[in-house]
UniProtKB/TrEMBL annotation:
All residue ranges annotated as the HTH araC/xylS-type domain in the record: 187-284
Lineage: Bacteria, Pseudomonadati, Verrucomicrobiota, Verrucomicrobiia, Verrucomicrobiales
Protein name: Helix-turn-helix transcriptional regulator
GO MF term list: DNA-binding transcription factor activity; sequence-specific DNA binding
Pfam family, one: AraC_binding
Domain of life from the UniProt record: Bacteria
Originating organism: Luteolibacter ambystomatis
Keywords on record: Activator, DNA-binding, Transcription, Transcription regulation
Length: 290
């Protein structure tokens, strides 16, 4: 259902909202259930103060400014900031009058809800910053669409969208407050690899082109991608190689030559990266098209 009477725990201090309601009384044995969610434009006098909350909740700021206080700690709210709360987690949310908050919220429950948040490093009371706010906003919009579109598998789709959202948020979070510049430098270096991987051979070449120290480049990728820049470069190269082999227009030796690699070294790297040898990968394609 998408338009029941507004529950008491949903704020009415908004000027515009798009909400959905799936199950306000989820079964206690459900592992994970999306209760409700949506987007809301806060009124200038928006103020929500709760000592408790019946569900786990994730909120994400799309625009505007405000503050949230959880566990006695006050945090600034602005675009890209996400925060969580839940049962037993008191919280106070306020907005700036001249630049009211525009934000998303997702309420969910189930005996696996808390464990899911904890596994993503965002247990109730957590504050984090998304390095790619547009990506998270897109994921939230898909979840709202799923919750607002009646279908046979609506509740299951919503749960899968929620899990995907939390994983996206975990993968694209800024590691700690004050590291926005660090994350932007990482994105600049990653984007350079994405655009030039075909001609790059070493992480040092990336560092030189991006005007950063090689050791700093390694730390950036370890912090924000949990892998080395060279490993990321190899994965981009091998994914491209797989596309060439899958097209049927290149044989293994030619693809290795295109990438400037010795065929034997190419085969080892391809298998280490994608799990199968390039010849086996190409043979699978031949079997598939017969």
């Amino acid at each position: 259902m998408t338009n029941p009477e507004t529950p008491s725990f949903v704020s009415t201090q908004v000027t515009e909202a798009r909400r959905f309601y799936l199950d306000l009384n989820p079964h206690p044995d459900a592992p994970l259930a999306v209760v409700c969610g949506g987007w809301e434009q806060c009124a200038p006098d928006y103020r929500v103060s709760r000592e408790d909350f019946p569900y786990c909740c994730l909120e994400f700021v799309a625009d505007g400014y405000g503050e949230v206080t959880t566990g006695g700690n006050k945090h600034e709210l602005r675009r890209g900031i996400a925060f969580t709360y839940g049962p037993g987690c008191s919280h106070l949310i306020t907005t700036e009058r001249k630049r009211p908050l525009s934000k998303y919220f997702i309420d969910f429950s189930g005996h696996g809800a808390l464990a899911l948040l904890e596994s993503c490093g965002i247990a109730p009371g957590a504050i984090l910053e998304a390095g790619d706010p547009a990506r998270i906003e897109s994921a939230l919009s898909r979840l709202i669409d799923a919750g607002s579109t009646p279908s046979t598998n609506q509740t299951r789709i919503a749960v899968l969208q929620l899990e995907s959202l939390l994983l996206e948020l975990t993968d694209h979070r800024i590691a700690a407050p004050g590291q926005t510049q660090s994350y932007q430098t990482y994105l600049r270096c990653r984007d350079y690899i994405d655009a030039h991987y075909f001609t790059l051979n070493t992480a040092e070449e990336v560092a030189t082109a991006c005007h950063v120290d090689p050791a700093y480049l390694a730390r950036l990728f370890a912090r924000h991608a949990r892998e080395s820049p060279y490993r990321y470069l190899l994965h981009r190269k091998m994914t491209h190689a797989a596309d060439l082999l899958d097209s049927g227009r290149r044989i293994v030796r030619e693809v290795a030559s295109d990438l400037g690699m010795d065929p034997f070294h190419f085969s080892r790297v391809f298998k280490r990266t994608l799990g199968v040898s390039p010849s086996d990968f190409a043979n699978r394609r031949e079997v598939k098209v017969k």
